[in-house]
Amino acid sequence: MFRQRLAQEAFEKGKAKRDPMAPRVRAAVPCRPYDLFGAREEPLVGAALEGATFEEEDFSGIEVANSAFSCCSFRKCDFTGAYFKDVRFKNCDFSNGSFERAVFERCVIETSKCLGASFSRGLLREVVLQGTDCSLASFYQARWRNVLLRETNLSEATLSEGDFKLVSINECNLIAAECVHVKFIGIDFTTSQIEGLVVSAGLDELFGSKMDAYQAAVFARQLGLVVE
Protein backbone atom coordinates (compact mmCIF):
# COMPACT_ATOMS: atom_id res chain seq x y z
CA MET A 1 0.00 0.00 0.00
CA PHE A 2 2.86 2.35 0.79
CA ARG A 3 4.38 1.95 -2.68
CA GLN A 4 0.95 2.32 -4.24
CA ARG A 5 0.47 5.60 -2.39
CA LEU A 6 3.88 6.79 -3.54
CA ALA A 7 2.99 5.93 -7.13
CA GLN A 8 -0.30 7.85 -6.89
CA GLU A 9 1.44 10.86 -5.40
CA ALA A 10 4.11 10.73 -8.10
CA PHE A 11 1.43 10.57 -10.81
CA GLU A 12 -0.45 13.57 -9.43
CA LYS A 13 2.73 15.59 -9.05
CA GLY A 14 4.16 14.66 -12.44
CA LYS A 15 1.13 15.04 -14.70
CA ALA A 16 0.85 18.06 -16.98
CA LYS A 17 -1.25 20.83 -15.44
CA ARG A 18 -1.98 22.72 -18.66
CA ASP A 19 -1.73 22.46 -22.42
CA PRO A 20 1.43 23.75 -24.12
CA MET A 21 1.48 27.44 -24.98
CA ALA A 22 0.23 28.24 -28.48
CA PRO A 23 2.84 29.47 -30.97
CA ARG A 24 2.86 33.19 -31.67
CA VAL A 25 2.69 32.97 -35.43
CA ARG A 26 2.56 36.15 -37.47
CA ALA A 27 3.19 34.68 -40.90
CA ALA A 28 2.01 37.59 -43.01
CA VAL A 29 4.79 37.54 -45.60
CA PRO A 30 4.91 34.71 -48.16
CA CYS A 31 8.31 33.08 -48.20
CA ARG A 32 10.21 31.90 -51.26
CA PRO A 33 11.59 28.36 -50.91
CA TYR A 34 15.22 29.44 -51.29
CA ASP A 35 14.83 31.97 -48.43
CA LEU A 36 15.10 29.02 -46.08
CA PHE A 37 18.72 28.44 -47.05
CA GLY A 38 19.67 31.88 -45.72
CA ALA A 39 18.17 31.20 -42.29
CA ARG A 40 21.54 29.96 -41.06
CA GLU A 41 23.10 33.44 -41.37
CA GLU A 42 19.97 35.45 -40.54
CA PRO A 43 16.88 34.06 -38.74
CA LEU A 44 13.77 33.66 -40.87
CA VAL A 45 10.99 35.52 -39.04
CA GLY A 46 7.30 35.97 -39.82
CA ALA A 47 7.33 33.80 -42.93
CA ALA A 48 4.67 31.65 -44.59
CA LEU A 49 5.84 28.78 -46.79
CA GLU A 50 3.37 26.55 -48.61
CA GLY A 51 3.78 23.65 -51.02
CA ALA A 52 7.59 23.70 -51.18
CA THR A 53 9.48 20.46 -51.86
CA PHE A 54 13.04 19.71 -50.76
CA GLU A 55 14.98 16.45 -50.59
CA GLU A 56 18.36 15.70 -49.00
CA GLU A 57 19.03 19.42 -48.47
CA ASP A 58 21.24 20.80 -45.70
CA PHE A 59 19.33 23.11 -43.34
CA SER A 60 21.55 22.43 -40.33
CA GLY A 61 21.74 25.29 -37.85
CA ILE A 62 18.91 27.37 -39.33
CA GLU A 63 16.74 29.58 -37.11
CA VAL A 64 13.03 30.11 -37.81
CA ALA A 65 10.55 32.09 -35.70
CA ASN A 66 6.91 33.26 -35.81
CA SER A 67 6.32 31.34 -39.03
CA ALA A 68 4.03 28.75 -40.63
CA PHE A 69 4.79 25.87 -42.98
CA SER A 70 1.98 24.13 -44.84
CA CYS A 71 2.01 21.16 -47.25
CA CYS A 72 5.81 21.21 -47.52
CA SER A 73 8.06 18.19 -48.06
CA PHE A 74 11.52 17.94 -46.46
CA ARG A 75 12.28 14.26 -46.98
CA LYS A 76 15.79 13.20 -45.89
CA CYS A 77 16.75 16.81 -45.10
CA ASP A 78 19.31 17.71 -42.43
CA PHE A 79 18.07 20.07 -39.69
CA THR A 80 20.80 19.20 -37.19
CA GLY A 81 21.04 21.91 -34.52
CA ALA A 82 18.15 23.92 -36.00
CA TYR A 83 16.09 26.25 -33.80
CA PHE A 84 12.33 26.70 -34.25
CA LYS A 85 10.36 29.08 -32.05
CA ASP A 86 6.67 29.94 -32.46
CA VAL A 87 6.36 27.85 -35.63
CA ARG A 88 3.39 25.86 -36.92
CA PHE A 89 3.87 22.90 -39.28
CA LYS A 90 0.79 21.47 -40.98
CA ASN A 91 0.63 18.62 -43.51
CA CYS A 92 4.41 18.55 -43.86
CA ASP A 93 6.68 15.57 -44.56
CA PHE A 94 9.95 15.26 -42.63
CA SER A 95 10.40 11.52 -43.20
CA ASN A 96 13.92 10.18 -42.65
CA GLY A 97 15.18 13.66 -41.82
CA SER A 98 17.63 14.60 -39.07
CA PHE A 99 16.68 16.99 -36.27
CA GLU A 100 19.44 15.88 -33.93
CA ARG A 101 20.10 18.48 -31.21
CA ALA A 102 17.37 20.66 -32.73
CA VAL A 103 15.16 22.85 -30.53
CA PHE A 104 11.39 23.24 -30.90
CA GLU A 105 9.88 25.89 -28.61
CA ARG A 106 6.19 26.81 -28.67
CA CYS A 107 5.63 24.82 -31.86
CA VAL A 108 2.77 22.78 -33.30
CA ILE A 109 3.33 19.85 -35.66
CA GLU A 110 -0.01 18.59 -36.97
CA THR A 111 -1.12 15.99 -39.51
CA SER A 112 2.48 15.61 -40.67
CA LYS A 113 4.92 12.76 -41.34
CA CYS A 114 8.11 12.22 -39.36
CA LEU A 115 8.51 8.57 -40.31
CA GLY A 116 12.02 7.41 -39.41
CA ALA A 117 13.19 10.94 -38.55
CA SER A 118 15.77 11.52 -35.81
CA PHE A 119 15.14 13.99 -32.99
CA SER A 120 17.92 12.55 -30.84
CA ARG A 121 19.31 14.79 -28.09
CA GLY A 122 16.91 17.55 -29.07
CA LEU A 123 14.61 19.72 -26.97
CA LEU A 124 10.83 19.95 -27.30
CA ARG A 125 9.45 22.70 -25.07
CA GLU A 126 5.77 23.76 -25.15
CA VAL A 127 5.13 21.57 -28.21
CA VAL A 128 2.01 19.88 -29.60
CA LEU A 129 2.29 16.81 -31.84
CA GLN A 130 -1.17 16.24 -33.29
CA GLY A 131 -2.20 13.51 -35.75
CA THR A 132 1.39 13.00 -36.85
CA ASP A 133 3.17 9.81 -37.95
CA CYS A 134 6.39 9.42 -35.95
CA SER A 135 6.68 5.66 -36.39
CA LEU A 136 10.27 4.40 -36.38
CA ALA A 137 11.45 7.88 -35.37
CA SER A 138 14.23 8.32 -32.81
CA PHE A 139 13.89 10.60 -29.80
CA TYR A 140 16.89 9.07 -28.05
CA GLN A 141 18.00 11.25 -25.13
CA ALA A 142 15.56 13.98 -26.17
CA ARG A 143 14.26 16.40 -23.54
CA TRP A 144 10.49 16.86 -23.34
CA ARG A 145 9.08 19.86 -21.46
CA ASN A 146 5.30 20.36 -21.34
CA VAL A 147 4.58 18.44 -24.53
CA LEU A 148 1.18 17.19 -25.72
CA LEU A 149 1.07 14.10 -27.94
CA ARG A 150 -2.39 13.58 -29.40
CA GLU A 151 -3.49 10.96 -31.97
CA THR A 152 0.14 10.49 -32.94
CA ASN A 153 1.79 7.28 -34.17
CA LEU A 154 4.95 6.44 -32.24
CA SER A 155 4.95 2.72 -33.02
CA GLU A 156 8.47 1.25 -33.01
CA ALA A 157 9.87 4.67 -32.18
CA THR A 158 12.87 5.06 -29.87
CA LEU A 159 12.22 7.14 -26.77
CA SER A 160 14.96 5.58 -24.66
CA GLU A 161 16.83 7.74 -22.15
CA GLY A 162 14.47 10.62 -22.82
CA ASP A 163 13.88 13.21 -20.11
CA PHE A 164 10.11 13.63 -19.71
CA LYS A 165 8.59 16.44 -17.66
CA LEU A 166 4.91 17.44 -17.86
CA VAL A 167 4.11 15.30 -20.91
CA SER A 168 0.57 14.27 -21.94
CA ILE A 169 -0.11 11.30 -24.21
CA ASN A 170 -3.66 11.05 -25.58
CA GLU A 171 -4.93 8.44 -28.07
CA CYS A 172 -1.46 7.61 -29.35
CA ASN A 173 0.04 4.44 -30.80
CA LEU A 174 3.13 3.38 -28.86
CA ILE A 175 3.09 -0.26 -29.94
CA ALA A 176 6.60 -1.74 -29.68
CA ALA A 177 8.12 1.66 -28.87
CA GLU A 178 11.50 1.42 -27.12
CA CYS A 179 11.33 3.30 -23.84
CA VAL A 180 14.21 2.02 -21.71
CA HIS A 181 15.37 4.40 -18.96
CA VAL A 182 12.46 6.81 -19.41
CA LYS A 183 10.47 8.01 -16.40
CA PHE A 184 6.81 8.11 -17.40
CA ILE A 185 5.77 9.75 -14.13
CA GLY A 186 2.46 11.58 -14.50
CA ILE A 187 1.57 10.06 -17.87
CA ASP A 188 -1.89 8.56 -18.48
CA PHE A 189 -1.73 5.69 -20.98
CA THR A 190 -5.38 4.66 -20.73
CA THR A 191 -6.41 6.08 -24.11
CA SER A 192 -3.32 4.85 -25.96
CA GLN A 193 -2.04 1.58 -27.41
CA ILE A 194 1.04 0.34 -25.55
CA GLU A 195 1.22 -3.33 -26.49
CA GLY A 196 4.81 -4.49 -26.78
CA LEU A 197 6.19 -1.35 -25.14
CA VAL A 198 9.86 -2.06 -24.51
CA VAL A 199 10.93 -1.22 -20.95
CA SER A 200 13.45 -2.66 -18.51
CA ALA A 201 12.80 -5.97 -16.77
CA GLY A 202 11.77 -4.30 -13.52
CA LEU A 203 9.26 -1.99 -15.23
CA ASP A 204 10.84 0.98 -13.44
CA GLU A 205 9.88 3.26 -16.32
CA LEU A 206 6.18 2.78 -15.55
CA PHE A 207 6.27 3.86 -11.90
CA GLY A 208 3.91 6.79 -11.35
CA SER A 209 2.09 6.33 -14.66
CA LYS A 210 -1.57 5.41 -15.15
CA MET A 211 -3.06 2.59 -17.21
CA ASP A 212 -6.26 0.56 -17.34
CA ALA A 213 -6.68 -2.96 -15.93
CA TYR A 214 -6.00 -4.68 -19.25
CA GLN A 215 -2.80 -2.72 -19.86
CA ALA A 216 -1.61 -3.34 -16.31
CA ALA A 217 -2.28 -7.07 -16.65
CA VAL A 218 -0.02 -7.28 -19.70
CA PHE A 219 2.90 -5.83 -17.76
CA ALA A 220 2.08 -7.92 -14.69
CA ARG A 221 2.64 -11.02 -16.80
CA GLN A 222 6.10 -9.71 -17.66
CA LEU A 223 6.85 -9.89 -13.94
CA GLY A 224 5.83 -13.54 -13.87
CA LEU A 225 2.40 -13.02 -12.33
CA VAL A 226 -0.52 -15.20 -13.40
CA VAL A 227 -3.41 -12.92 -14.32
CA GLU A 228 -6.84 -14.39 -14.95
TrEMBL record:
It comes from the Bacteria. Pfam families: Pentapeptide, Pentapeptide_4. This is Pentapeptide repeat-containing protein. The lineage of its organism: Bacteria, Bacillati, Actinomycetota, Coriobacteriia, Coriobacteriales.
